[in-house]
Design goal:
By secondary structure, the chain is α+β, with helices and mostly antiparallel strands. The protein has 8 helices and 13 strands.
């Protein structure tokens, strides 16, 4: 998984240099970034298929690809933080997870712009560039820095997300919106953020982050408190106390929305 991420990362890094050059021209970066995304996904698929030819895939661009082994599949986002990448901002990543019998058992999140690698494996811990990760130990939400995502105006959930953000801002030091769900989860696992809540992301956005939070000693669930992150398209993460406190505030803000 790390080899696939590194190889795709080199491809994204080369194209990222060109994206930064395009920012000062009138030429749009949309098509260029789409091609960079597709190229990275192809690299990852080829690398993983060579290592485990019977495993299936769930990929952002290619969708679901059934494998001979129904118990194992790779869940891949070749470029999480697309809009950051498109604007020359170095906050983006590759996310790869291994799902076995409906459980995420390993994950890799790699930001090639900063050369920062986050990895986790069930029962083996979570690491950021070989340094063990632990979720932050803060016990009260009022002391916490958290993150979320805000859909664009006109998109489903925009009004609800603003209500949630307003409620959480009153109870925390601050709320960040980074544009990368995968990196937000990695940062919670590393203790850089105390918690995160996200609505609307797809499985490939947060699959690798699930195992990282768990292996870093944190709690992760859907916003309604269940384990159905994939079905609900929501995720809530933090340490035991902050997970509960943040969830309570977010769910209360949903009333009437």
């Amino acid at each position: 998984m790390t080899n696939a991420a590194f190889k795709a990362g080199r491809s994204l890094s080369r194209d990222f240099g060109e994206v930064q050059n395009l920012q000062v021209s009138r030429k749009g970066t949309g098509d260029f970034v789409t091609n960079a995304d597709l190229k990275a996904e192809k690299i990852i698929r080829e690398e993983l298929a060579e290592a485990r030819p019977k495993f299936g895939f769930l990929m952002e661009e290619s969708g679901e690809i059934k494998g001979e082994d129904p118990q194992n599949r790779w869940i891949v986002d070749p470029l999480d933080g697309t809009h950051n990448y498109m604007h020359g901002s170095p906050h983006f990543c590759i996310s790869i997870a291994l799902e076995r019998e409906k459980e995420i058992v390993a994950g890799v999140i790699y930001n090639p712009a900063t050369d920062e690698l986050f990895v986790a494996e069930r029962g083996q811990g979570a690491f950021a560039n070989d340094t063990r990760m632990r979720v932050a130990a803060r016990r009260e939400l009022v002391d916490c820095l958290v993150s979320t995502n805000i859909p664009r105006l006109g998109q489903t959930g925009h009004k609800r997300a603003l209500a949630q953000q307003a409620a959480v801002m009153k109870q925390t030091i601050g709320v960040r919106c980074s544009g990368s769900t995968a990196l937000d989860l990695a940062y919670v696992a590393a203790g850089r953020l105390d918690g995160t809540w996200q609505s609307g992301p797809q499985a490939w956005d947060f699959a690798a982050g699930i195992i990282m939070i768990k292996e870093a000693g944190g709690y992760v669930s859907a916003l309604n408190g269940t384990r159905d992150m994939f079905g609900s398209g929501t995720i809530l993460a933090g340490n035991e106390r902050i997970h509960k406190q943040l969830g309570d505030v977010v769910r209360a803000a949903n009333v009437g929305q």
